[in-house]
Amino acid sequence: MAKRSSTLETTLLALEMLRRIPRAPRSITAGELHAQLVASGFERDLRTIQRQLDMLSTHLGIERDDGSAPYRYRWLPHARPLAIPHLSPQESLLLKLAEEHLRPLLPAHLMKSMEGFFVQARHNLEPDGNARLEREWPSKIRTVATSQPLLPPKIVPGVLETVSEALYHNHWLRLDYKNAAGRRTTVEVMPLGLAQQGPRLYLVCRYRGFDNERSLALHRILSAGQASTIPFDRPRDFDLAQYDADGRFRFGEGALIRLRFRIDRRTGHHLRETPLSKDQTVTECDGDRLEIAATVVDSAMLDQWLKGFGDAVDGVQKEAVA
């Protein structure tokens, strides 16, 4: 691939800067803009960004507020920016929802690189704007809990950022970890996946020297650091979706069983609408009960779910599936 000329690189940098400079009354410092650009792959020092901003503010409708350091920059309200695409109301809504729901699942540098667009999206959806229907949409939707809601556990500051960056770059991690029993260990792990289960986040990883996977709760990580700058080769035999399908996040080992049980008709009515599996069968029984049969992954979560029905469930049978 041909190498870009310095002129093209400078032009692309200027265009990217212009996209990220907000309109009045909002503003941005050279340092904030520099952090966003670096996170987006523009390797320039802060002084270069400052010179570019000074040049742009001289020739375009960009105001530099030099009343106090650090200086702040913004498009003037009456300025007509270059014809650089701006976010539509629909794009602003999508970005707002993405920022809210994906923040714990995206690497910190990607979130930082998108900060300028998140700011623009929030501004576009402010009450004094024209996007009334898009602004109202978040208040019209809700993800509701299927069990007793719990507050998320506290994660040590910096741990999520370090873990997600190591996962993104395929770098070894050194963790100071305390398990549920209170046992504290220092381990080096190969990060393979990040999963959100209700209010909790889990890191799927392999310990150095082992070839099996473990799930570590992020809120039990006391500290995290990069163990090596040399990336590892991601195992070809690992698939996060299959790991989940095997019931590993439900404290199972992937063993399939044919589950049978009887349940009170009224209590079990929802299983007709939301079955346990595609091959589930429902049989009417005497005494106002239903017999349910389904092929599922055996797990501790399944046992807990069945016990949660109390006397409404009986006759539980499990048969291994070859």
UniProtKB/TrEMBL annotation:
Stretches that traverse the bilayer: none
In Swiss-Prot or TrEMBL terms, this protein is called WYL domain-containing protein
WYL domain ranges (all copies): 159-224
PANTHER family xrefs? PROTEIN PAFC (PTHR34580:SF1), PTHR34580
Q: Which domain of life is it from?
A: Bacteria
For this protein, the record's InterPro entries field holds: CBASS_pafABC_assoc_protein (IPR051534), WYL_dom (IPR026881)
